[in-house]
Amino acid sequence: METTLVLLKPDAVRRQLMSEIIGRFERRGFTFRGMRLLQLDRATAEKHYAEHAERPFFGELVDFITSGPIVALALEGNGAVATVRDMMGKTNPLDSAPGTIRGDLALELAENIIHGSDSVESAERELAIYFPDGLL
Ligand code: IDP
Ligand code: MG
Fold this sequence. Notes:
The chain is α+β, with helices and mostly antiparallel strands. The chain has one domain (2-130): Alpha-Beta Plaits (2-Layer Sandwich). Helices cover 41% and strands 19% of the residues. The chain is built from seven helices and four strands. Strands 2-3-1-4 form a four-stranded antiparallel beta sheet. It is globular. The relative contact order is 0.26. The structure holds inosine-5'-diphosphate and magnesium ion. Inosine-5'-diphosphate binds next to loops.
């Protein structure tokens, strides 16, 4: 059994898409082991996105992810990491198939409404950032 970290980014919360997105994960059958509404400070955002620190869009990415409340979810299920990534769609919503979260709900690369861990190792690292006291 795997557990993965999902973020509903500030655009998802602003656009009142929380229940739409969370409902998809409930209906798919994941077990919710953590759920928080929070706003990131820059240091935590930079830690989360450390792998992108040298990319030209890093500043914008940190500005955006700190721009308002986000929802952090810890989702447990068989193959949770890959299954969530499949449900999210491609990084660029314009490449995302209809039926995926980005393919149904987003149009902008920088405002693509959701984050999901890209590997079991990333999930462990990221879950520790958002759920330092552990999971239910
Ligand atoms: P992922 O979210 O699908 O895992 P990553 O490559 O890890 O995609 O990129 C992290 C986030 O950075 C993306 O979700 C997207 O919002 C943003 N991003 C990626 N590439 C670009 C870009 O070229 N310009 C602006 N933002 C980007
Ligand atoms: Mg990524």
